[in-house]
Structures are given as structure tokens and as C-alpha cells.
Specification:
binds FE2/S2 (inorganic) cluster, five-stranded mixed β-sheet, three-stranded antiparallel β-sheet, alpha+beta, Alpha-Beta Plaits, Ubiquitin-like (UB roll), 6 helices
Length: 238
């Protein structure tokens, strides 16, 4: 694999051809906010929080799905990027019902963490306040569509790690929903192995485990991330 040279935040750096910008930034120790990205899973480029400025491009690019290129000039932090990242978070908060004070994952939510990290302290857009169902048909887990940000981590971990292919996305735009087995109640799914990986990778309180404390869930999340991280590194060296 050949090496390319590019400029990141005024520094000349080298990268492997085909490598994503985000993975290069991680190697360089440059922190970029992300939500749909999870080490060890394929990239979706859905949340757009990892936006960067690339000279010559008239739009901001999602670094997780943008490969490095020879001669690229990249800027990862600027007032403009911060403005757009905050706006993306505000739109996510406005689209569904992220009322942190009454969410079981309050204090353990990546969406909430990003809002705090990026200084998003209010939402300028009208809340859509959708009245979405809660699927409590599974004996061990609960799916609350009101908290879902459609990052599809659950879909990808189920497809790529568990191989069960339970989850999918139905509908378009604001009407999109995560569905189990062609839109059946989760509890009746024939393909679900009840492994709980989807719950462990959920960045919000959309997928949760019944009767388990948040601290316990956090431990499960950390364990799966450790496995995914190891899997990714293994692939990287081969
Ligand atoms: Fe890149 Fe979501 S992390 S678009």
C-alpha cells in the first residue's frame, strides 16, 4: 500500500492510501466529535458530526467516509466547523424526544456528552415532538424510537459482528425508523439471538436492557467496544 502526504492543521503528515481521514486524525491524536462511527464497524457517514474543511471542496466533508488524498489540505477545528457541529446536534435534539432529565441513560449518553463537549446549550429549531412507539415486546430489551438518532450502529453490529441481520431502517427522512425482522415486534423476531450487542453499541437511550442498572450497562458497552477495537486493530495489521 502506498503512502500519501497531506497537510492537517498546517502540519505535513503521511498516511496510508485508502485510509479514512478520521482514522488518520485518530492516529495523530486529533479529537473529532463522532456519533455514528464506532471502531470495528463499517462507516456510514450518517451523523455528519465528524465534518472537516478540505481546501478546494466547496462543502464540508465527513472525515469518517472521506479517504485521504495526496496533497489534501485539511482543517479539523474552526469557528465554522464548531457552528455546524452544534447545529447538527440541535437538529438531532429537535427531531425526536431527547428529554435527558427523564431518560434512563441520563449522564451515560453520547449525544448528551457531545452537546456538553461542543457547548450546545439550547436548541434554536422547533421541536417536532413526535409521538413514537416504545417496543417493549422483547423479554430482555426495550426499543424506544423517541431516543433513536438513526446512527445504525445497531444495524451494523448485528450484521457485521453477530451475523443475525435483525435490524434495518424503514422509511425515509424524518419518517425513518429502526425495524426488527421486516417491521415485527422485536420480541417475536425469529432471527434475534438476544445477544444484546445492539443495546451495547447504542449511543443514546434508544436501546436499553430491562432490570439492569446504568452502571452495569456501561460496563457491557465498554467490554464490547474493547472487543471491536481489538478486531479493528487485528484487521489493520493483516
Ligand atoms: Fe462521521 Fe457520523 S462519525 S458522519
Amino acid at each position: 500500500m502506498s503512502v500519501v502526504t497531506l497537510t492537517v492543521n498546517d502540519e505535513l503528515v503521511s498516511a496510508q492510501e485508502g485510509q479514512s481521514l478520521l482514522s488518520l486524525l485518530e492516529e495523530l491524536g486529533i479529537q473529532i466529535p463522532t456519533l455514528c462511527h464506532l471502531e470495528g464497524l463499517s462507516e456510514r457517514g450518517g451523523c455528519r458530526l465528524c465534518l472537516v474543511e478540505v481546501e478546494g471542496s466547496n462543502r464540508l466533508l465527513a472525515s469518517c467516509v472521506t479517504p485521504v488524498q495526496e496533497g489534501m489540505v485539511v482543517r479539523t477545528h474552526s469557528d465554522r466547523l464548531l457552528k455546524y457541529r452544534r447545529m447538527i446536534l440541535e437538529l438531532l435534539f429537535a427531531e425526536r424526544n431527547h428529554v435527558c432529565a427523564v431518560c434512563v441513560m441520563n449522564g451515560h449518553c453520547e449525544l448528551q456528552d457531545q452537546a456538553v463537549n461542543l457547548g450546545m446549550d439550547h436548541v434554536r429549531y422547533p421541536y417536532l415532538n413526535p409521538d413514537l412507539p416504545v417496543d417493549a415486546s422483547h423479554e430482555r430489551f426495550v426499543l424506544d424510537h423517541n431516543r433513536c438518532i438513526l446512527c445504525t450502529r445497531c444495524v451494523r453490529v448485528c450484521d457485521e459482528i453477530e451475523g443475525a441481520h435483525v435490524w434495518d431502517v424503514m422509511g425515509r427522512g424524518v419518517n425513518s425508523r429502526i425495524i426488527a425482522d421486516l417491521n415485527q415486534p422485536w420480541g417475536t423476531s425469529q432471527s434475534c439471538t438476544s445477544c444484546g450487542k445492539c443495546v451495547q453499541v447504542c449511543p443514546t437511550g434508544a436501546l436499553t436492557t430491562r432490570g439492569v442498572t446504568v452502571a452495569e450497562m456501561e460496563k457491557q458497552h465498554d467490554f464490547l467496544r474493547w472487543i471491536l477495537d481489538g478486531r479493528n486493530k487485528k484487521q489493520w495489521h493483516y
